[in-house]
């Protein structure tokens, strides 16, 4: 359905823009992932941008839903969700059924901030926040005009550049600045300004290979900038009702800017667009982000990507920037008003998290270990990867377990207590596995439905996925131990499922509050022993409780005990349990690992 154009930007237009941007990024996701080469060629920029905008769109929808409820159903006349390309005119219902422009843009910015993924997604979140700061200055203003939109785009570009520790030209920052420059010179309504910004962004994107040598060598344009062009194209469609032609093009093969906007094209523009098209034809499986490369540019990069939300004061964040800048690269810190999104690439993930703890309260911590193919290959020179036949994707609760699973060949998704991964993150991990067949291990009973949704989406993309309903990371380890990629897929899945099912699992944790349990009433601070998900032991000491749990599990027999210790558990606990097994249970072996910050004090598996 064609968009109904309007001459100003209001809350309904923001809603429509978010929906159309999400749709545009959905179409371009694989294309953007494929040109991802800098600073780490991990092929996920398109996916990260999509997830960031998805979070922004969800937040805007929530604001509209709240106003419709508050209006007592008066929102029946509100335009439909923007993703379907519905109209953005004034509602037929009462004005109270529609949020103000300020409410809508603040929700958009907040949603992007808390849902930002990756380097480019974090920068896009700051771009949206910068726009919101200008558009929400007057709380009761129903809409803005072309001049206001131009000011918002200018502030967005400037604030995004300030958020990056070491800005580099030839990245999404250059594309955003060019869009803002073009918007400021435009004279007219919001549609006119959006067209100008889009044209400036397209031209700047075509120039990125000439600005960054790694892009030129790889024959691609900047991936983050390509994503921003898609988002600005959605803004043009929202405000004019026309779909810019270049958004529909594949890779970097952009239509000349003048043609895309229905105007004329200069010889210079034509040459630039042709160069970009030629670059796309030579595209490789690599990508680019907007932070300064380390000395030498071709050297190895950090091993981990660390992202977390942080509640902290401005002064503490200033000190945090300095510390993280010394620890690694690709540092981007966005946000404000007490809530920040921190992104950095480091070798010492623990130190990056500790820096956040010193600054304030970090949460939604996500640590991704870059595979050797992505990090330790010279930037811009990684050959295109062929899909492997089979891979394993596993959700794990701690960094130590993540490394253990990774060493065994699995692609991991790090989960934190109270912060389970969304289905989109699991789909992203399945794509990252780069395999024709994937075995998915959720390792948590509560993630079964999320994992099932992710498996269905991956199957729709042509990937054969088998979901093994593992309920604990120790069951996942048992499954991974018998995994053999050389045998038939069905046989491998049956063997892994059998191994997981034959493994009883337990955990030792601390009660957070008083509660009724299967073992009686526990008080806050009590040590709890859970067997197969149910509280079986209530104690006061970690070692004693763990020993009781282990004895109960081994009473039914077993050949191998697996212990996974959390960071706060001393090594003596594992030594005591090993000694207990040696003394009381003949022919039973014990292995112990460090799980990191895994939530539970101790995980136990018996198989």
TrEMBL record:
Q: Which GO terms describe its biological process?
A: glycerol metabolic process
- What Pfam families does the annotation carry? Dak2 (PF02734), FakA-like_C (PF13684), FakA-like_M (PF21645)
Which terms in the Gene Ontology molecular function aspect does this entry carry? glycerone kinase activity
- At the top level, the lineage of the source is Bacteria
The DhaL domain, residue ranges: 12-237
InterPro entries attached here? DegV_domain_contain, DhaL_dom, DhaL_dom_sf, FakA-like_C, FakA-like_M
Q: What is this protein called?
A: DAK2 domain-containing protein
């Amino acid at each position: 359905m064609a968009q109904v154009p309007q001459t100003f930007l209001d809350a309904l237009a923001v809603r429509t823009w978010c929906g159309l941007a999400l749709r545009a990024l959905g179409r371009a996701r694989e294309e953007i992932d494929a040109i991802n080469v800098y600073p780490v060629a991990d092929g996920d920029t398109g996916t990260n941008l999509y997830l960031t905008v998805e979070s922004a769109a969800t937040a805007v929808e929530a604001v509209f839903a709240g106003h419709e409820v508050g209006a007592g159903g008066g929102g029946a006349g509100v335009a439909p969700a923007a993703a379907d390309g519905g109209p953005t005119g004034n509602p037929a219902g009462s004005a109270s059924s529609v949020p103000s422009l300020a409410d809508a843009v603040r929700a958009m910015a907040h949603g992007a901030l808390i849902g930002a993924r990756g380097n480019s997604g974090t920068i896009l979140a700051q771009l949206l926040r910068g726009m919101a700061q200008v558009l929400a200055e007057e709380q009761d203003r129903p809409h803005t005009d072309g001049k206001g939109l131009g000011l918002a785009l200018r502030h967005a570009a400037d604030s995004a550049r300030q958020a990056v520790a070491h800005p580099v030209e030839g990245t999404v920052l250059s594309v955003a600045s060019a869009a803002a420059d073009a918007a400021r010179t435009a004279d007219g309504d919001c549609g006119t300004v959006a067209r100008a910004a889009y044209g400036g962004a397209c031209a700047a994107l075509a120039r990125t290979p000439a600005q960054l040598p790694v892009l030129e060598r790889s024959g691609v344009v900047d991936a983050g900038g390509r994503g921003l062009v898609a988002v600005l194209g959605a803004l043009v469609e929202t405000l004019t009702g026309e779909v810019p032609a270049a958004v529909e093009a594949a890779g970097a093969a952009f239509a000349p800017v003048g043609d895309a906007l229905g105007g004329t094209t200069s010889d210079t523009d034509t040459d630039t667009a042709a160069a970009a098209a030629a670059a796309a034809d030579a595209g490789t499986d690599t990508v680019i982000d907007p932070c300064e490369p380390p000395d030498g540019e071709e050297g190895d990069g950090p091993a981990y990507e660390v992202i977390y939300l942080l509640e902290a004061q401005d002064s503490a964040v200033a000190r945090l920037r300095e510390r993280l800048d010394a620890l690694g690269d690709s540092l981007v810190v966005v946000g404000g008003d007490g809530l920040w999104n921190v992104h950095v690439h480091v070798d010492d993930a623990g130190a990056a998290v500790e820096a956040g703890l010193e600054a304030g309260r970090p949460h939604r911590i996500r640590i991704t270990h870059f595979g050797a193919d992505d990090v330790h290959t010279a930037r811009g020179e990684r050959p295109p990867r062929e899909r492997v036949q089979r891979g394993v994707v596993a959700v794990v609760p701690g960094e130590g377990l993540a490394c253990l699973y990774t060493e065994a060949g699995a692609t991991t998704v790090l989960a934190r207590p109270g912060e389970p991964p969304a289905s989109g993150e699991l789909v992203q991990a399945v794509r990252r596995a780069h395999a024709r067949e994937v075995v998915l291990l959720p390792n948590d009973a509560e993630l079964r439905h999320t994992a099932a949704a992710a498996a269905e989406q991956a199957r729709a993309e042509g990937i054969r996925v088998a979901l093994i309903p593992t309920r604990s990371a120790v069951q996942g380890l048992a499954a991974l131990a018998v995994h053999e990629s050389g045998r038939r897929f069905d046989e491998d899945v049956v063997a892994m499922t059998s191994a997981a099912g034959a493994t009883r699992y337990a955990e030792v944790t601390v009660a957070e509050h008083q509660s009724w349990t299967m073992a009686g009433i526990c008080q806050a601070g009590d040590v709890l022993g859970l067997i197969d998900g149910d509280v079986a032991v209530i104690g006061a000491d970690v070692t004693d409780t763990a020993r009781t749990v282990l004895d109960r599990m081994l009473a039914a027999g077993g050949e191998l005990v697996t212990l996974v210790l959390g960071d706060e558990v001393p090594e003596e606990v594992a030594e005591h349990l090993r000694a207990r097994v040696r003394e009381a249970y003949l022919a039973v072996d014990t292995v112990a690992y460090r799980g990191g910050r895994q939530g539970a004090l101790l995980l136990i598996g018996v198989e």
